[in-house]
């Protein structure tokens, strides 16, 4: 048993080191064109998205909300059951918003891990099968790989390339779900865990491409002091008091330390463009996590509480967008 455990530890250490070394190369390879052409968003005719990928609204939506999953994601088209339950409830809570859920945020190309020109696609295909079978062994490997992509997105050297790539992927999926860039309809990027960093990385480029207001709502979001924090229309960061991953991010990224008053994060806090909100005794994932439908607090499940708080945050963002638009119109008329 000890020998087997030793092999597992050694394999884990090797995967950790390889993942760390290789993390930036997918971003650089995409930028260099080694991983396929840089097609313009919407240039190819997209197939109609599945019914679950866009909320059915009877009229033009108030805004488009794009879900960026946590580091357990392997493909934008394949969500975990807990995420499916969460998004179903969120659609019911926000019927006047269009919800886009088919973005894979952990590659600048947006390609699922088990497709494309990936050297380790055989490993991710195995992870895909084992993930569906609820096998425990490969999820930590998947999480490690995606975690390093989050760190790439947070890196000042590679982050701008990563954010630019993801903004194109997001725009492509928005167009496929019926978004018209010329209309300037507001966009809200909703990031879970590492999806929070991906959201703030992509926000400035998505705003530049569409001319629309792009804001971020994150829950349990792992985020650095990225330029997107100050350039997003609004950033609301929801977290649980028992979310130690969220607390760790506060120390892991020096730009979030109070002593660096000029950082993007602290400037956004002073300008009240960034709001952090404790939503209760919720942990990061699993039992007691944001999407746990069984754990309860104050007569509501954690899942219900998360949906309610996100709905409040989304509507708060829209109030702010409407106020800024009114100020702009008033300034023009004067």
UniProtKB/TrEMBL annotation:
Keyword check for Transmembrane: yes
Keywords, ordered alphabetically: Membrane, Transmembrane, Transmembrane helix
Protein name per the record: Uncharacterized protein
Transmembrane segments: 6-25
InterPro entries: AB_hydrolase_fold
